[in-house]
Recover the amino acids of this structure.
């Protein structure tokens, strides 16, 4: 329950950031990333990576099979959200569709999916009562 509240609040934060960017609004976060080398890309990676990690925990590490691979459902949901959001930027005059942003999002989703796997494997699972083997 708590993980769902945290994930929902974080998703709300991301939606607020997207709204500000789409409407040309300003935020202290936008000012902060201007002073960090590649701050925009780091921001994409960390925001969507963190959302991925929270979604995977909230969904109790559930996976689906894609061919030979088991993929976290939360990771898939965040990837679909990210793809839709990035593509939508091509239709908003004040935004630009940037493949580098999409790549940074993908790196974040991938890294934090791996962090999810490590967490699930090596930290006793609240949901299973044992380590995932």
């Amino acid at each position: 329950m708590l993980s769902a509240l945290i994930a929902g609040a974080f998703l709300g934060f991301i939606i607020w950031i997207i709204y500000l960017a789409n409407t040309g609004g300003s935020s202290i976060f936008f000012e902060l990333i201007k002073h960090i080398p590649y701050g925009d890309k780091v921001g994409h990676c960390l925001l969507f990576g963190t959302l991925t990690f929270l979604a995977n925990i909230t969904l109790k590490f559930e996976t689906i099979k894609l061919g030979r691979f088991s993929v976290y459902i939360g990771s898939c949901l965040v990837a679909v959200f990210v793809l839709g959001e990035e593509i939508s930027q091509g239709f908003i005059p004040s935004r630009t569709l940037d493949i580098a942003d999409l790549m940074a999002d993908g790196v974040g989703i991938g890294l934090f999916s791996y962090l999810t796997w490590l967490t699930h494997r090596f930290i006793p699972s609240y949901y299973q009562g044992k380590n995932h083997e």
The CA atoms of residues 68 and 107 lie 21 Å apart. The first strand starts at residue 63 and ends at 66. Residues 99-122 form the longest helix (24 residues). Residues 129-133 have pLDDT under 50 and may be disordered.
